[in-house]
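Subgroup meeting minutes
Present: P.N., E.W., G.H.
Scribe: E.W.

1. P.N. recapped why we're keeping a running log of single-chain structure predictions: easier to compare across weeks, and new members can see raw inputs and outputs side by side.
2. G.H. added today's entry (208 aa).
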Amino acid sequence: MTDTAPAPSRRRENTRTRLMDAAAEMFAEVGIDAASVEAVCERAGFTRGAFYSNFASKEELFLALCARSAETTIAAVRERVTSIEDRGLDVTGEVLHLVQEVLEIAGDDRLDILLGAEIRVQALRNPEFAAAYLSSNAALAESVTQLVSDIARARGLSLRVPASVATEVLLSAWVATAETAIMTRQTAAESRAHLGERLEQLVRLIVE
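Output recorded in log:
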């Protein structure tokens, strides 16, 4: 008879994923300080024992979420870049569209935006969180910088600032626009429109 029960490693991974998903929602909604281990466990449907068999503390879980969030975003950026490259777009006027495609990868996900804001706040307060945030942010910036450089080279464009600086400006604008959209209760369509307007202004400043 074939054993169809999940292997221990698979069960453990499923447990970790459910705990992290529940924690991401809790941290985004109320912040890490107000989210208790008990509340995370209740939302995930596990006991405290299950939690502590996977994470030593709430802080360790938070760091795991930081890493997962960065990995997910970077993977999405790389997938979008590959899609763009496969399409072989070669019109200079589409630079703005290409950049906006990449920066919109999580723009409609309210919880992701809230979690990102919580990560940044905690990074300002906690050196350990700061190190994790800066590392993941650097990896994301590297991916987007590569995209900006590739677009400029492929289109024969000249940038007024280094690609890394252009990336910093574009990412900062994306974060600010996404967070403002939540504060002002904008719809996803309104948020995209405002992001497009802001990016158009910045791209015109960055590109010769």
